[in-house]
Amino acid sequence: MTHDITGLMAALPGLDWITDPALVRQKSRDFFWYSPVLKRQLNGARADVVAVPRSEEEVVRLLAECHARRIPVTTRGAGTGNYGQAMPLLGGVVLDMSAMDAVLWAKPGLVRAQAGAKIIDMDRHTRAAVGGELRFHPSTKRTATIGGFIGGGSSGIGSCTWGILREPGNVLGLRVVTMEETPRVLELRGAELDLANHAYGTTGIITEVEMPLAPSEDWLDLTLAFPSLMDAARFGDALASMDGVVKKLVCVLAAPIAQQYFKGFPALGETEAVVLAMVAPPYLDALVPLLARHWGREVARIRTEDAPVPAYEFTWNHTTLQALKVDRSITYLQTLFPAPDHLALIARMEREFGDEVPIHLEYVRLGGRVCCFGLQLVRFTTEERLNEIIRIHEDAGAPIFNPHAFTLEEGGMKQVDAAQLAFKRQADPLGLLNPGKMLAWDDPDWTPDRPGKVYLFPAAEDEAD
């Protein structure tokens, strides 16, 4: 499809444009190549041009001009997503929000920032200004933007205490621009937040974000070793369930993940499993008897701020990245091991797959209950075997939020989000925002191939019931 990019740029001469082909290609990509399936499907995706607005007014003018010319617009933060959220399937404009990066204000317990603000900069600002920090962040904290995290993410470091982004109270306000003949600027709060939260920018462009803060802590990174995966998993479950211990991370890694793939990591026994934890210093004594009960030992501790590589950069999606630096044939899964039988299910999957699917767990609270997300590594052979591994997990009761698919429904919701779809019809009537990412827009009759799954978002699960 040919787009009138020349006319668009002429209509907006004051906007910052990127036209260099190499830079346009770079800004059209994210970390989709974690998946060999997405690498095959999306490798050729690229925009015609990149726009870099510096104000909400410029965003409004750009969307109006693109609407008039029927030019697709795909929004982008830092491009740290893993499954093609920010990749333009039909060309057009990539809207790079990184220049809108101001922290607008911070108050005790609250912060408001432009969508392009880096999460690490927000934390620095709020720590200094009001003694607070964001409740949680992705493993890409040092580069990710807050708008990109809300638009494309779902959980991260801190989710062991605070749950996921869609838990009520974890996002407080979103300012969103629609893509209509005359774009509107909306302030979403309360239940309306889910119209744009984890929508990949298909329902509107997030320009500002209001987030709650937790009290800032002088976090310690702990590296703990255990004789077996299940010793580590039981310890992690117990730690995540200790509501009185202030913590931000509980990650479990089977051998040989750390031994094979983590450069500069503390020395471990060949078969030892690892727990990586972030704990506030006053609570360390509470861990001593727990560690002993599960046959664990402390390998290392360091202030997160002093660590050359913080613990969180070995966890969540960074675990896969560290492995890919060593072995490009590795890929991964995104799995829910639901409570209350998550430990038994983990043990079953370890027996089923062994070293073909090394176990990586992140403890979270989901709907108030402690359970695990699995971001297991997969020693990839064929797409057929990958699909078989996914099927075996789901048949066993471990839903897969498929990281080898680029649509909203396949990657997490597993169903049509009726509220988001209805909002898109109003806010983007021509379907120009990040086209191809919402299956229900392109195929109103779409339904999951395996109905009855557990959904990532509680609201979606309630609707399905």
From TrEMBL:
| Family matches, as InterPro entries | FAD-bd_PCMH, FAD-bd_PCMH-like_sf, FAD-bd_PCMH_sub2, FAD-linked_Oxase-like_C, Oxid_FAD_bind_N
Molecular-function GO term, any one: D-lactate dehydrogenase (NAD+) activity
Mind listing the UniProt keywords for this protein, alphabetically? FAD, Flavoprotein
- Domain FAD-binding PCMH-type: residue ranges: 42-216
Q: Which residues form a coiled coil?
A: none
Report any Pfam family annotated for this entry. FAD_binding_4
GO BP terms, alphabetized: lactate catabolic process
Q: Which domain of life is it from?
A: Bacteria
Name under which the protein is recorded:
FAD/FMN-containing dehydrogenase
